[in-house]
Amino acid sequence: MTDLEVDLLVVGSGAGGLTAALVAADAGLSALVVEKTQWLGGTTAYSAGTAWIPGHRRLPEAPADAVAARRYLDELVGDRAPAQLREAYLAHGPAAIDHLERLGLSFRHSASVVDYHPEIDGWGTGRALEPEPFDGRLLGAERFRRVRRPIPEFALFGGALMLRRAEADQLLTLFRGSPRAAALALRLGARWAADRLRYPRGTRLTMGNGLVAALFHQLVRRSGEVRFGARAVALITEGGRVVGAVVDDGGRAVRIGARRGVVLAGGGFAASPSLRAEFLPRPTPDFTPAAGGATGDSLALARSVGGAVAAPQEDNTMWFPSSVGRRRDGSVAVFPHIWDRAKPGIIAVDAAGRRFIDESVSYHRFVRAMYATSTVPAWLVLDARTLTRYGLGLIRPHLPAPLRRHHLRSGYLVTGATVRELALAIGVDAGGLERTVAAANDAARRGVDDEFGKGGSPYGRQYGDPDHGPDPNLGPIEKAPFYAVEVVPTPLATTLGLRINGAGQVLGVSGEPLPGLYACGNDAQSAMASEYPGAGCQIGAALTFGYLAARHAGASA
Ligand SMILES: Cc1cc2nc3c(=O)[nH]c(=O)nc-3n(C[C@H](O)[C@H](O)[C@H](O)COP(=O)(O)OP(=O)(O)OC[C@H]3O[C@@H](n4cnc5c(N)ncnc54)[C@H](O)[C@@H]3O)c2cc1C
């Protein structure tokens, strides 16, 4: 006996779950998403919303790009994840995007974004797609309120005004008197001021917020539904098939039948301290920038009906190096250092005061180097001029000195009048740091980093400062006072998930599909093992396998 019957029941309202529900609803199925929190979007809502889709149709040589991407992934991932999964990703990713665009979503080509391993044959530029800003007013006030607010540091006014990343970069040129930046500031400010008369925050939603809001809008237009505060707590089976789930709906156990199947899209387990301790390397990360709902519920749900979890890898996650501070309201901010490390005049050092990596590599590679060299935590070190110009972590560029005091007092930002004083303040070997800074200054003058090659890779160069010479990634550390911020490993998305096949069906221990059960997003094992090929590979996979799961479920009678 069930309390409610739908065609497709989806657990989780992130990129994967909403895509599955939307594709199903568009095919005429009744689709219900249960979301255990009060907010739409999970970690996707916090994210940049970028999707890595090799061979997408905006690339000038799309078929050749897909072939190159296959070579790239074969080399990077090898046999650590089933080749069948990356084949499905490459074969259907572009079609998934085209399908979503036909259903009303819009993406913009991030044409200059470079893959994360330009040393491997088949790497590419421009495989990333970014969601176009979405007008939150289309949702209506009540649904708009449900969209999870972004990470405050990734927006202005404490999260109230969202920007595209390119817009944030452009606004910074205001400090150099750019009229285009002034015009943009006026346009965004006027829209935001008008919004604030009627809404609690700006309604122009960008990045991951824009993506989940657009998926939600198109879903409800097709009579799909998201039920908030509803947590899937058990799966219902009948004759070996998953036919629904028991949902804790605000304290009431509701049995929901699912004629075509259940899609698990709960976002993995980055927010579960116990699963982090079990599957992530030591020292175990204490923090994550992922949303709190990612506690691995689905792994337990699937296991209870015979579903298998993939074989653990070395790290089982994708990494951000993050600094951890307190906001003025007392909440904890976990700030991912995605791009700033590449700027000239910033180095990363260990306890001996030595550098350990080209600071401009991808965030995932940076944290792997931290673990490989036993550098947990690491310190990002810079001088007064660089801090003002580029900012660092919670310290925004050109932040007036009085506004930095909060971060100095809390210990988030540490300062010293000399490099030696700074070293003593952060507990790093002072002679070591002095020698490292002297060598970095010499490299900056010559424009060549002999030791780690910062500035030598197309990936790192894209996030340097093109107006800085002789090398866009190398700058001196010489203008007192000196500063440092501590960074620690934080999982942004877990990669260890349920075994699936190329249609998104969950597999049992002997490799057979479990009828009626699907997984996508971080609940599914990553097609990349725990490698990070390029910007957007998790949302790219979530959209692709959400789409594939819905199509497979729709085709099953
Ligand atoms: C700051 C940041 C930036 C990022 N930027 C990018 C990017 O640009 N591109 C990219 O590819 N990746 C990015 N990532 C990673 C990416 O956001 C995630 O990997 C991806 O969004 C996960 O999508 P998902 O659909 O699997 O889960 P989520 O978006 O996390 O959604 C899962 C939802 O399921 C709900 N849920 C869990 N269990 C249950 C249950 N039992 N019942 C009901 N509901 C449940 C959760 O509450 C949550 O709302 C970023 C991550 C961070 C932290």
Write a structural description.
- The protein is 34% helix and 21% strand.
- It has helices at residues 15-26, 42-46, 62-77, 83-102, 141-146, 165-172, 179-196, 207-221, 273-279, 297-303, 363-372, 384-390, 401-410, 419-426, 430-446, 458-461, 537-555; strands spanning 4-11, 31-35, 51-52, 107-110, 128-131, 134-135, 155-156, 161-162, 204-205, 225-228, 230-238, 241-249, 252-264, 317-326, 332-336, 347-349, 378-383, 413-416, 482-494, 505-507, 513-519.
- It is globular.
- The two termini are 20 Å apart.
- The site of flavin-adenine dinucleotide has 42 residues, from helix 1, strand 2, helix 2, strand 11 and strand 19.
Please describe the structure with a list of short key phrases separated by commas or semicolons.
single chain; alpha+beta; eight-stranded mixed beta sheet; 21 strands; binds flavin-adenine dinucleotide
How would you summarize what this structure contains?
The chain is an alpha+beta fold. It has helices at residues 15-26, 42-46, 62-77, 83-102, 141-146, 165-172, 179-196, 207-221, 273-279, 297-303, 363-372, 384-390, 401-410, 419-426, 430-446, 458-461, 537-555, and strands at 4-11, 31-35, 51-52, 107-110, 128-131, 134-135, 155-156, 161-162, 204-205, 225-228, 230-238, 241-249, 252-264, 317-326, 332-336, 347-349, 378-383, 413-416, 482-494, 505-507, 513-519. The protein has 17 helices and 21 strands.
